[in-house]
Amino acid sequence: MLQELNQLGIALEQDDKLTPTGFSECICHWQIDLSLETFMVLETPGKSDKSKPKFGKKILVPDLRRNGDETLLIDDGGEYVFGAGDRGEKRHDLYLQLLGRCLQETNHEAVKAVYDFVTNTTVEKITAELVIAYPPAANIDWCRDRFVFMFNGGQITKIPAIKKWWSNYYASKQDTIDGVCLLTGEKTPTMGRKMPMMVKGVPGSMTSGAAISSFDKVAYQSYGWDGNINAPIGFTSAVRFHKALDFLLNSHTNHYKLGGQVFVYWGEEEGEGINPEIWENPSFESIFASPHSPKKFNLEDIKSSKFYLAVLKGNRGRISVSSWSEITTQKIKDSLQQFIQCQQVNNLSPVPIWMLCNTAFLNHSKENTDRIATALIKAAFLGEKLPDEYAYRIIDRICSEKSFHPFPSQSRKHFYFPRLQGLLLYLATNNMKYPTDHPGLNTAYTLGRIAFLMHQSQVNAQSMTEDNTNVMRSLKALSSTPTQVFARLCHGCTHYHLEAEKSKYIKLLLAEEFENFDISVLPEVLDLKSQALFFQGWWQKRAEFFKPKDKSEQ
Q1: Is cis: bond before 276, omega within 30 of 0?
Q2: What is the end-to-end Cα distance of the chain in Å, rounded?
Q3: CB neighbours of 290 closer than 8 A, spacing ≥ 6?
Q4: What digits encode the pLDDT tens for the residues 188-210?
Q5: What is the largest CA-CA distance in the chain?
Q6: What is the DSSP letter of 16?
Q7: 61-64: long-range contacts at Cβ-Cβ below 8 A with a sequence spacing of 24 or more?
Q8: Apex CA 484: angle with CA 483 and CA 485, to 5°?
Q9: Which residues pair with 288 in a beta bridge?
Q10: pLDDT digits (tens, 9 = 90+) for 410-462
Q11: Measured between alpha carbons, how far is 28 from 156 in angstroms, rounded to an integer?
Q12: Per-residue confidence at 528, pLDDT binned at 50, 70, 90?
């Protein structure tokens, strides 16, 4: 994966899509314009007009993987810039030393303006200015807030000479040793005990980021190997693939977060991604999108090129690559088309992947949904089989809730069938078709149709709620070990419920189903595929039963 990210990084560098070495987008809170002598609070607008703006804004500023007291150039926290807080005195001295060194070597007027400003002010004066600019600052401990300095209308650290100086300083601070880069095969300075950057934005990791590669344990110190010597990576390549991954995690066409993990994906030709609309509407016509917009690309020219999908999870200090796949864009197109078609039974619209995932869990916010989420995304885009666990969970939820859709209070005209669609996907990705050529599977499907009619006959005869019929109370056994309960349920239906119901409609429908049902081949135990077909039969018969009839048919 690192090698492909490195190749992506080379392409992004050519298009000026990567951030400069030593710079990252970080949350900054205050902006000081030295030319105008003004203070301004930085805020991120809310997602809607009614929501309040969020304190702080992402800005491209100098960044460094800190270890203890490490200062940044110009744009840093209040502890370093003004000496605020308990650790301010020591950190402010480090800040002035670095700032003075930059001033001496660049002799830039903007750097001198920063140096003069921070050496001729106090924490009290800054506090007063911040309260004027943003009154809530009176109750904010701003010592760790990050400040950005402006001069003559522009951000100082983006001035080419200053930006270059910081990039060189950043490179000099890295722990490197001479070696051969594992990714490029070149003799070059390679990383020592730690990588130059941390990856931010992966669920489960710390806000400061997590390492994509780490050899900091004793277990990696054997046979004379220590630290990243276990997998030597050149400094330039390490910076490049970190920034390429950062690009993907910030591009709305190249990543998707679901549960406790994030999916990142890109094509080898243009770095193309997936249209974000597909995650809410799988049948969205335009599958691929280019992050180089408005630059266009021709899908026909790249349909045989590779497309990459990685699944990332984070913990306190590291990133886990839980899955890595390579596929062609044409295969994705075909897989997604199959994924859509499997769900369109009875003209139903395909539902979002997150919704299909949630149908398998009673409480998806508290359960581990990552395995199912990954399986669904691989089924949709890679055409892989769905695991048995997915079907088992859906069936278990149906039997536990005794309900065939998540909103039992809905009227019959607005049924919502993501569970049916999930089971259809499970059957289709296992190359299952309508079960007419297999007696055992056909029996399970027909049994589901009969079960619904027996259930509906009691609802009509006794005006019962749909979750309290004899069939519903025995649903788990009927769908898995049918011979234990079928005879009893069938006897109750034919001798009591059908007799009590005035209409003969259900009796006629049952007679039709029993013409295709041989009880002598009914197995004692239904396997998982047969259970899925049982519920498919139930749903299909229910849809037919409540479908408006023409007067001629009635």
Answers
A1: no
A2: 62
A3: 253, 270, 271, 272, 273, 296, 297
A4: 998 887 888 888 889 988 887 88
A5: 100
A6: T
A7: 61/23, 61/24, 61/25, 61/26, 61/28, 61/146, 61/148, 61/157, 62/22, 62/23, 62/157, 62/166, 62/170, 63/22, 63/23, 63/24, 63/26, 63/197, 64/22, 64/170, 64/173
A8: 95
A9: 274
A10: 444 334 578 889 999 998 865 444 454 555 678 899 999 999 999 999 999 98
A11: 14
A12: very high
Three-class secondary structure assignment of 202-243: CCCCCCCCEECCCCCCHHHCECCECHHHHCCCEHHHHHHHHH
Q: What single letter denotes the amino acid at residue 143?
A: C
CA distance 405 to 418: 8
β-pair type (288-289, 306-314): unpaired
Quick: pLDDT tens for 304-340. Answer: 788 999 999 988 778 888 899 999 988 998 999 999 9
Pick 286 or 482 by higher pLDDT: 482
Mean residue pLDDT of the chain comes to 87
Q: Are 271 and 6 in contact (CB under 8 A)?
A: no
What is 317-381 written as a DSSP string?
Answer: SBEEEEEEEEEEHHHHHHHHHHHHHHH-GGGPPP--HHHHHHTT-SSTTTS--HHHHHHHHHHHH
Write down how long the chain is. 554
Q: What is the pTM of this model?
A: 0.84
pLDDT tens digit sequence for 457-503: 999 998 887 778 999 999 999 999 999 999 999 999 988 888 887 77
